[in-house]
Write a structure and sequence with these properties.
Blueprint: E1 6-11, E2 14-15, H1 22-31, E3 41-43, E4 49-51, E5 69-74, E6 77-78, H2 91-107, E7 112-115, H3 131-134
Length: 138
């Protein structure tokens, strides 16, 4: 079993309200030459928590940190004009993210919850909100 040190929250960097599926994300990632979807869990617009790649297999979501992380992504993260990062999570997504992260913390109690942007050398706004602050009490 992998030693998990961080649960990493991402956004798909897609416009607010635009539905995307696990299959869509898998297709984007495979087009980059990756073996599968890079994330372990996907939170869809309706709050559905969908599996991505198996947790036993390192993800492809934080360069240099994939061996010890679990990647969680919510659909959205960009305003409708696609110019500005924006916290586009709706109530269902917020509830599901909280539930998913709570379940993962039970499974990986020592893991810290961070946003993608909280890692060194990441020049991205992802997940378009301060995950470290929002989930600090977990």
């Amino acid at each position: 079993m992998r030693k998990i040190t961080h649960l990493v929250v991402h956004c798909t960097a897609t416009p607010e309200g635009r539905a995307q599926t696990v299959a869509d994300i898998r297709k984007w990632h495979k087009a980059k030459g990756w073996s599968d979807i890079g994330y372990h869990w996907v939170v869809l617009l309706d709050g559905t928590i969908a599996p991505g790649r198996p947790e036993a297999i390192p993800g492809a979501h934080v360069a240099g940190h994939n061996a010890t992380t679990i990647g969680v992504v919510y659909v959205g993260g960009i305003d409708k004009v696609m110019f500005t990062p924006k916290d586009t999570r709706n109530a269902a997504q917020k509830k599901s993210l909280l539930l998913l992260l709570a379940r993962l913390k039970v499974k990986y109690p020592g893991a810290q919850i961070l946003g993608h942007r909280d890692f060194p050398k990441v020049a991205k706004a992802c997940p378009s909100f301060d995950a470290r602050k929002e989930y600090a009490g977990m």
